[in-house]
Amino acid sequence: MAKILYPQVITEDLDDLKELERYHRYSHLFQRLRMLRLLKSEQCSNLGEAARALGYSWRQCQRWFASYQKGGIKELLKSRVHERGRQELVTPKALEDLKETMKMGQIATISQAMSSLESVMASSTLIPMASVNS
């Protein structure tokens, strides 16, 4: 595999990277910028060294650099926090219907709410019943 010449591949100016790093210093995006700066300034000669300096895995730094190569600084700084975590088991429509039914006084207990949701979800192909019952 050919050696990547990071100072040439990273197109941003070192001063610009430092400024962006300062701007994002209290954000989870800070380390991504620091990785670029370390590689651009040649303080680290490869992703492995940068990973060790940052305290991240080589694979994580590789993902960050791949995203940089794909779309530049804009892609690297794209936050994906909202994509993490468990997905909702109840659709927004089912939740809204449940709230309306509760307002009308037809559901008063958690047990009744669960039964209502189970019947709605059973008719839906989006979520298997095992997910609702666990």
Structure report:
The chain has helices spanning 6-9, 14-23, 30-40, 47-54, 58-76, 92-103, 110-123, 129-133. The protein is mostly helical. The chain has two domains: 6-80, no CATH class; 92-133, no CATH class. The two termini are 48 Å apart. Residues 127-134 have low confidence and may be disordered.
Offer a few descriptive terms.
134 residues, mainly alpha, 2 domains
List the helices and strands and how they pair.
Layout: H1 6-9, H2 14-23, H3 30-40, H4 47-54, H5 58-76, H6 92-103, H7 110-123, H8 129-133
Helix pairs in contact: 2-3, 3-4, 3-5, 4-5, 6-7
What is the percent of helical residues?
Answer: 55-70%
Q: Radius of gyration from the CA trace? A: 24 Å
The largest sheet is: none
Distance between the termini: 48 Å
In round numbers, the mean pLDDT is 85
Roughly what fraction of the amino acids lie in strands?
under 5%
Structural class label: mainly alpha
The gross shape turns out to be elongated
Number of strands: 0
What are the low-pLDDT stretches, counting only 5+ consecutive residues below 50?
127-134
What's the helix count? Answer: 8
The figure for the number of domains is 2
Can you write the helix and strand succession as a string? HHHHHHHH
